[in-house]
């Protein structure tokens, strides 16, 4: 082991290699609620693409597993290293290389955080609209998991905003894909293939991102519904109304209680109404002018009221910001409540009511409760599972995933498979597809050094 | 040869197999302007996925090349068969299987034309917004080439509207990818990998498409500019103005003369102004209400006028439809004028002025003229090349592609590589990427039966 670390230090310079006690606890895990931690052989801190290239050639030569790491905010264990491997942490590659206002494009290094990116582009009247809910997350990590979040109902996910990549193959070649344009029919789309591959196909060293104009006006509506069913049945109607909402979230009563308690936000909803509410819809509309936002607020409000909302509140800006912020942090509320796992199944949005019925039935069958909230406009549900026993938890989660799949959905809408969902993925997915994915993996990474054990074994 | 055809007929039934004189001329070519034609061994007309599966197993066993065909409207020769191969023509698989208004999704067989799809979904107030300009084209063909067209500046290209596929692998396995949702982080994105692969990775038997609400109001602006440079310099300003145009096309004087003459459309622009115009911008805005369209028309018109337009005409609906229709058909005008090749380079939209300068210089160097028009909002230019001599044409086209690549662009924005652009692609593209594409091809198609010779040899 020690000779390997020495050779790595000799290759890159000692200041770019951490080993032994210098490896902080953070590098051993991400934010997945249950899952193994591993201390890697070494942590490498590249300062540019050439360092990354050299690490990968070295790792190929020595057959050392390599795990890429952004901010470590993932929820599926995809950046948890192997004990015999190295972590490539992109924390020093965090330059915004270019903001191109004519083409509406930013080019960033993978260690740039969403917060830093949006601060830089806001000055130019632009925004990177993908909003996975954790601003400290990096663009490199977002690309690896194809991060989604609340605004996907309007803007899509990471995949829809990455126009090109610079990436290093396992064998050390540096490739560039795509560019500052939306249209290309010039060979297979390597950009899209690397996005969502969770560090198993290539290491991304630059990301070309599509930006959109920052719309200055918005309004936030909160609608309590007596039943979860009425709330989720209203979602497709809202999305097809033409209002083009920026986000449509559902929050069940238990989750709303947890996040309002934690954040201290006051919604101005009386205790009686709260008691008779099973779920809330949170809707944001945005526009170029205040008039358009007012018009869309009317239209959205009318749709909510017509389909069973007990009331429709247009929240003051400060309360809106607080509530959305608290909703983003609902994962931490679940963690604090000692949830054992968080599920992010996606189903067709019109199948959400049926899915939620089945979730309720599964919870009853397992004598537990499964609170949740979700990116309802996209059919993407976040459910907190409380079950300490691994076998029982496995059985319960597998039922949730099977229910989602039967309705035409998939296991993960945005968190990724990583190591945490791998067992379910391999058991439930079509073996012909798994075999094909393995052959693609082999085409990129013949020595299996890139994040082995993630997505599949 | 004959025993192969007999075994195919025995396998599928004679009514699904054409051979010999029964193979019409159409099956031997697409619409590429120059390029070889080949009469295949047989044409297979599957009626469902099981037929496709059986053909591919048979072709794998017998090592027979298989070329998929939609409407044959492609421009790169990607559906031209091998003489020792079979064509799988999807003309009998043209059912719209489902229009799901709650999820805004249509599921179609590959032989459905854009015209048939949009007729079916318009009744529900929806539209499939990708508009490659040839309504007889099929969705299967659109998926194969990742077709783009005029509306990409607002809605993106085929890739952005395909949510899932059913596809048959070369080895006969039927896989299903994606579904009725936008978000998924569940293994590598096979949907996106198959899109744009020009029939070389898998045969698509079902396509799940994202639809959008049909906006009832629109306006069409036509702005003549004294110089091409002023016209193309205005484009990024228009796109970033916030108006969100549905399309931004430039049309040079020569192309405008050809398409107006051919279509008979009258633009109401005086002879003097026409004579002092080097290029036109054609801009369409659309919206949910007439008020919004009026507002956006004002904004777009002001931007055009401020940046050098000689005038701004808001076209009457009938003239607008005629002109856009004629613009779509400009390829046929070029064909009639005996153009030898059409180029569809894409560059970053802000680099269009520089690219057009270089095109002019290249034309002068080669003592020719290169008229054009293009999806300017996307930096996607269509240039007609008039040069009969193959070596000179090669030299000229290579210069055009190199100029585009130096500006950060790619060879093809929407037509694909096919067989026509293969030489340029293989010569100009990074060999490490080509090698990777070949390994991916091998992962899908170990016996190289799917459209061999397309994209690469």
Mean pLDDT figure of chain A: 95
Q: Helical percent range of chain A?
A: 25-40%
Low-confidence stretches of chain A: none
Compute the CA-based radius of gyration of chain A: 22 Å
Number of strands of chain A: 18
Verbal overview:
2 copies of one chain form a homodimer. Chain A is an alpha+beta fold and 457 residues long. Chain A has helices at residues 2-12, 49-62, 114-122, 139-145, 152-155, 190-194, 228-240, 253-263, 271-275, 290-306, 317-328, 330-336, 352-365, 390-406, 422-428, 431-444; strands spanning 17-19, 42-44, 66-69, 86-89, 96-100, 105-108, 126-127, 162-169, 174-178, 202-210, 212-213, 217-225, 247-252, 279-287, 313-314, 341-343, 372-375, 380-385. In chain A, the strands form 4 sheets. In chain A, strands 15-12-14-13-17-18-16 form a 7-stranded antiparallel sheet, with helices on both faces. A 5-stranded antiparallel sheet of chain A has the order 5-6-10-8-9. Chain A has a 4-stranded mixed sheet with strand order 1-2-4-3, with helices on one face. In chain A, α1 packs antiparallel against α2 (49-62) and α8 packs across α11. The longest helix of chain A is centred in the middle third of the chain and has 17 residues, at 290-306. The mean pLDDT of chain A is 95. At the A-B interface, β9, α6, α7 and α16 of A face β9, α6, α7 and α16 of B.
């Amino acid at each position: 082991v020690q000779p390997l670390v020495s050779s790595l230090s000799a290759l890159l310079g000692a200041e770019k290699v951490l080993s032994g006690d210098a490896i902080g606890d953070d590098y051993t895990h991400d934010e997945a609620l249950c899952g193994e931690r591993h201390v890697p052989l070494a942590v490498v801190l590249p300062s540019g693409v050439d360092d990354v290239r050299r690490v990968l050639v070295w790792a190929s030569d020595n057959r050392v597993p390599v795990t890429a790491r952004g901010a470590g905010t993932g929820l599926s264990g995809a950046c948890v290293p192997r004990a015999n491997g190295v972590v490539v942490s992109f924390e020093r590659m965090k330059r915004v290389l270019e903001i191109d206002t004519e083409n509406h494009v930013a080019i960033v290094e993978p260690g740039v955080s969403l917060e830093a990116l949006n601060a830089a582009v806001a000055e130019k009247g632009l925004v990177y609209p993908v909003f996975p809910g954790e601003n400290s997350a990096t663009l490199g990590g977002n690309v690896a998991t194809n991060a989604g979040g609340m605004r996907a109902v309007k803007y899509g996910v990471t995949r829809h905003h990455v126009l090109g990549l610079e990436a290093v193959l396992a064998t050390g070649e540096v490739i560039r894909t795509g560019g500052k344009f939306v249209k290309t029919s010039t060979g297979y789309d390597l950009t899209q293939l690397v996005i969502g591959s969770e560090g198993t196909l290539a290491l991304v060293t630059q990301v070309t991102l599509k930006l959109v104009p920052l719309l200055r006006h918005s309004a936030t509506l909160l609608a309590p519904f007596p039943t979860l069913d009425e709330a989720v049945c209203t979602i497709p109607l809202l999305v097809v109304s033409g209002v083009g909402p920026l986000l449509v979230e559902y929050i069940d009563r238990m989750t709303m209680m947890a996040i309002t308690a934690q954040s201290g936000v006051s919604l101005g909803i009386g205790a009686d109404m709260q008691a008779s509410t099973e779920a809330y819809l949170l809707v944001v509309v945005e526009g170029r002018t205040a008039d358009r936002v007012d018009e869309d607020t009317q239209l959205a409000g009318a749709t909510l009221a017509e389909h069973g909302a007990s009331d429709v509140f247009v929240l003051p800006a400060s309360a809106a910001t607080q509530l959305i912020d608290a909703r983003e942090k609902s994962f931490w509320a679940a963690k604090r409540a000692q949830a054992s796992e968080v599920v992010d199944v996606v189903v067709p949005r019109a199948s959400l009511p049926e899915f939620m019925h089945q979730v309720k039935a599964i919870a009853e069958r397992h004598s537990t409760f499964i609170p949740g909230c979700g990116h309802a406009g996209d059919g993407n549900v976040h459910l907190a599972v409380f079950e300490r026993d691994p076998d029982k938890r496995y059985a319960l989660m597998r039922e949730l995933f099977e229910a989602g799949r039967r309705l035409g959905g998939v296991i993960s809408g945005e968190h990724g498979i990583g190591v945490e969902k791998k067992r379910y993925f391999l058991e439930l997915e079509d073996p012909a597809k798994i075999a094909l994915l393995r052959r693609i993996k082999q085409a990129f990474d013949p020595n299996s050094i890139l994040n082995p054990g993630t997505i599949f074994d």
